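Weekly sync notes, structure subgroup
Attendees: PM, AL, DS (notes)

Item 1: joint prediction request from the bench team. They want all two components modeled as one assembly rather than separately. Inputs as received:
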Amino acid sequence: MSIENAVADTGCQDRQIRHERGQRAVFCGLTSIVWLHRKIQDAFFLVVGSRTCAHLIQSAAGVMIFAEPRFGTAIIEERDLAGLADLNEELDRVVNRLLERRPDIKMLFLVASCPSEVIKLDLDRAAQRLSADFAGRVGIFSYSGSGLDTTFTQGEDTCLAALVPVLPEAKRDAARSLMVVGTLADVVEDQFARLFREIGLEDVHFFPPRDSQHLPPVGENTHFLLAQPFLTETARTLQRRGARHIPAPFPLGEEGTTGWLRAAARTFGIPDERFEAVVAAPRERAKRALSAHKAKLEGKSIFFFPDSQLEVPLARFASRELDMTLAEVGTPYLHRQHLAAELDLLHKDLVIYEGQDVENQLDRCREARPDLTVCGLGLANPLEAEGLATKWSIELLFTPIQGYDQAGDLAELFARPLNRRARLEV
Amino acid sequence: MQLTVWTYEGPPHIGAMRVATAMTGVHYVLHAPQGDTYADLLFTMIERRDKRPPVTYTTFQARDLGTDTAELFQSALADAYERFKPQAMLVGSSCTAELIQDDPGGLAAALHLPVPVIPLELPAYQKKENWGAAETFYRIVRTLASPRQGQERPKNERPLANLLGPTALGFRHRDDIVEITRLLESMGIGVNVVAPLGASPADIQRIPDADFNVVLYPEHALSAAQWLERAFKQPYTKTVPIGVNATRAFIAEVAQIAGVSADVPERTRLPWYSRSVDSTYLTGKRVFIFGDATHALAAARVASKELGFQVVGLGTYSREFAREIRAAAAEYGVEPLITDDYLEVEAAVRDSNPELVLGTQMERHIAKRLGIPCAVISAPVHVQDFPARYSPQMGFEGANVLFDTWVHPLMMGLEEHLLRMFREDFEFQEAPSHLGAAPQAPKEAPAPRELAVAAPAEVALAHQAAETPATPSALVWLADAEAELRKIPFFVRGKAKRNTERYAAEKGISNITVETLYDAKAHFSR
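Output from the run, pasted for the record:
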């Protein structure tokens, strides 16, 4: 959906990007529900799909499924496929039943899947229709998490983009404000809020918010900083509402975090001396935390399979802050403009693979025999059995890794598999 | 449309994957959108397989729709054949591809691959995982085990059996095969082919060489076995050997089919362990059983006849075997529960007030939530139920495993109560609970399962579920009743109080007397 556009957007880097097509071993966008529902605490995510969708979320969510989760699947059955009129009535019935059972829900997302897209079930219209029924009680939205449209973290992008139109309008004469876009662990969000305050930025909002009562305002005076690299659509819709994007690297590692914060500070005219004074101590802490892991990781080669679009910033972190060598960097999509600051920090000769043909990529990986392979759980054990050390990539989405105080943890995630292999004598 | 949070079974193509992954020399090309590859991690993570499942997905995306999905399928199939050179291939659609109506069977036939290509029709909007596994296995057997023209079955030196049904991601399938193979060996019977687990297409061809079939898991193998009986006159076993009695019955059945002696040494400790005085406290324990039909039926027999439990609930998510479960439930005098909605199961567990739950991964969590001991007897299961150690469910060693597995949480439960009972003694610190938090009454002990040394009647009184309303304001405890209440050990007192109040409210009694207290106790003791 977006690569062609993304490539057309820029094209400024003369970097080699190889496009690959073939079998893709990736999650679909539905998977992002697993962390989004934790973040927005009064939202429910209702997938309209098949038993496969329900099974996927169940497998991805692991034990979380047992904690009265705020997500579920309306499974389309044989009789629903007989006629589309029925299907809309059925959906209304399911939503009514759900909202009766969960009166605490203030936002309901109808999430489209491959089956619902293929039969052209119009969830946008369903959301509008249901919104009228529940006006004032529950906000009802729709977006697509289908594998036809979205890969893994793109589900967060389509979800947030669907929310942008209902963000309150910032007042025309309001002072300039900062919006941080992309899900961050609460602890990380709090750290950033503290740092921004110390730098002298008071009016900072986070999107997505922790609940429906705290939707951030947006307008001509909103400047937004992307906390995640996979927010193409969300950025576009924010820009359509007048907000301005602050180009920056992503807040991974000491260097990324500093670059990210500095971009915001400069946009808001914070003097460099003040900025440096505030970040000096946490920067030192981050470097200290990194040094122990760096000793173990420097010179080791790392190979990234495509998964979350975090691969490019992670590769930058691994190569520049841990002195690892990059065997291959794969990403499901590459938004050149959002990643411009990252790409500038990477070696000019590095080849980045966009898309995937998993069999060919596995051949390349086996040939390269990297010291560490970052890949999904479907590939990790088979590669371990072939003698390759792996780091399973989903953990990088569920673990707080952004910011100064998580830099050491992030390095540790890469160091742990190697550490373990060094210990084992069986 | 059905609102679902938890599903007991995946879609039917997962069943097909379980068969393909179980076998060697087979490759499955699945027409499916990007994202459906999530299923790989069930095999690589839960079962800890060291290889990727032999499945190629077409992973089509929006831009492929309408134009070239059929072409995409054909090139994926051709590439997969070239790369893996399997002896046979399976082709089929996942739920989304079923809707776009490319025809994998027809598209595959047009490629004229030099190996058998078996098309699978798996209706994703009607059927589920186990059905998908059974259908896939049946199709494979039907295609590959073709009758040899005019040839008699070879004369074997000794009777030969096939073991049918074990798949990838099967609950204890790996060890059940070992146990049953040993058992048959001890009867002088050889194993011809085990399938689908570990079998190649060439092995499937040899299935007709055996004298009879052992159906280990009817959910997966019954349709294939029935066809083999028609096509090759191979009888198949109807008893699933889980538990001592079922194993004995299985031996008798096999002896009769194979014409061998049923005199087999019983290497099992279950009968003696169950008769030893230590097990007396197991008598009449209320047990709730839920799982796939085969394991639930077997568990009910073992629970009631071999451990002396009382079955207070029996159910399955396998609608295909609802009739058998209904018949068994009638035998135990309980309402059968045929559902795939875990909320219904949770309600049934709550209502039947069990002291032990035997179920799947989901019942484990329900039981944890309710503070009831639990053991896992059936798929779906998590990684811990694919253990490194030998732990079959079938045969005599399986019976030993069942005894330990089911009694262990109860012993832990007893230990838990003793710890809580003496919690106020200075030597005991608060011990972390293996049962998990009991959310309804975090400060109070959960309903005790057993306390042989304490007062069993009060324990019985306390059996009712914790879900009782707070003291209705209209109720008054008279002084003597309150004094009597205080004589009840502290760890069941709260429950006794609530049950009495509930009883009084139901009977419209406003003044609670000693009589009311004991009436309530009689009412609730079972």
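Discussion: Residues 428-432, 437-470 of chain B have pLDDT under 50 and may be disordered.
Action: AL to compare against the crosslinking data before next sync.
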